[in-house]
Input
Amino acid sequence: MTATPVVPSGQAPSPAQDPTAAAAAAAADLARLTGRDRHDLLLVLGSGWLPAVDLLGRTEADLATTEVHGFAAPAVAGHAGRIRSVRTASGASALVLLGRTHLYEGHGVEAVVHGVRTAAAAGCRTVVLTNGCGGLDPAWSPGTPVLISDHINLTGASPLRGATFVDCTDLYAPRLRALCRAIDPSLAEGVYVQFRGPQYETPAEVRMAGVIGGQLVGMSTALEAIAAREAGMEVLGLSLVTNLAAGLSGAPLDHAEVLEAGRAAAQRMGGLLAEVVGQL
Ligand code: 8IG
Output
């Protein structure tokens, strides 16, 4: 992000009107509300990951996203809509977004990536994107964490404007994936396929996701990863497989099942995240 004159956040443009100015205004709000001019890394906690938040370090500030410029009100149960400033064991300062804005909420792609751009404007060089998702590999029982190795963006949307030709090779940093596997050698890797949602996939769409090279299906992350790459940040993606993708288990999909898988896996997730974050 290039330096942008900061206007009082009440008068700043919305992310859709001017994403860069909106992110600068939000970063100024964060500096004021957290008492910290800069942060080192951003963690976005998606479905199933919220219970891990208390294991990450010492919370120094806890804000409602509505206190920070440009964040849309949360729409999903289990997505708390808060921002924490956390001091990790290694002394890094982390911004933690509890919940995210999804494309299907209809606020536009700029709102979806506003958190990432705000973090970049606040000095973050690394972003850890987590999500809950469906898994295509029957070996991945609910509660299995999987490293994202790459993505396929099926939303038809992009956070980039104009002829912004961003390279997406190694978008999910091999260095950070290796670090995670060193911590937990049993971690599997998979290609994440982002659908727009909000409906879950049909069984035929899940088969398509497999045929085109995907192993994980969800409704987030890819657009945020692209915006993070544009901003020059290093990206780590972690999925929590909370359900077998549609058509693979014989049972219908249920959002309560998703939240329960998260609670059950919280300890492992929190431990993994805290160790990773401690080494970033
Ligand atoms: I949690 O099976 C969760 N989010 N698209 N499909 C999609 N999104 C999801 C799923 C799933 N599970």
Summary: Residues 47, 132-134, 195, 197, 200-201, 217-219, 242-243, 245, 253, 258 surround 8-iodo-guanine (CB under 6 Å). The beta strands are 41-45, 58-64, 82-87, 93-98, 126-135, 144-153, 188-194, 216-218, 234-244.
